[in-house]
């Protein structure tokens, strides 16, 4: 069990040299894909939805994996909780046909939420909400 805890929450967050550059690029592509996906829903362009949804989920997953590579502490921070809330909202949107009429606006709200929290002060984004006394927080910029 200790080995698993050390793997998920390393004493020193793991380094990855080009992490910042990779994250900046992925985030830009992710926001563009999410914006196009939102527009496809708002404008009723059904043919575009599947491909842009796949691109948005793929780039979002890549960003999540980069953060988790550093440390699982990411999921205990405000920024990780926001990501989990976005994933839950997207799953609800895809799993509940009753939300379909509002899908475009829900996606726009998720994009706005993402941008607001990615530009929030670091004291907000990196705040550890649970187990702050037992985990070393992930603090990479980017």
Structural class: mainly alpha
Q: Could you say how many structural domains there are in total?
A: 1
- The total count of helices amounts to 6
Q: Helix share of residues?
A: 55-70%
Q: Low-confidence segments, ≥5 residues, pLDDT <50? A: none
What's the N-to-C terminus distance?
31 Å
Output mean pLDDT: 89
What is the tally of beta strands?
0
Query: What about the largest sheet?
Result: none
| Whole-angstrom Rg | 16 Å
- β-strand percent reads under 5%
Shape: elongated
Order of helices and strands: HHHHHH
Q: Explain this structure to me?
A:
18% of the residues are buried. The protein has 142 residues and is mainly α. The chain is elongated, with a radius of gyration of 16 Å. The protein has helices at 2-8, 19-42, 46-70, 78-95, 103-118, 122-125. Helices cover 66% and strands 0% of the residues. It has one domain (18-125).
Question: Which short descriptors sum up this protein?
Answer:
142 residues, mainly alpha, 66% helix, elongated
How would you concisely characterize the structure shown here?
The chain is mainly α and 142 residues long. The chain has six helices and no strands.
List the helices and strands and how they pair.
Elements: H1 2-8, H2 19-42, H3 46-70, H4 78-95, H5 103-118, H6 122-125
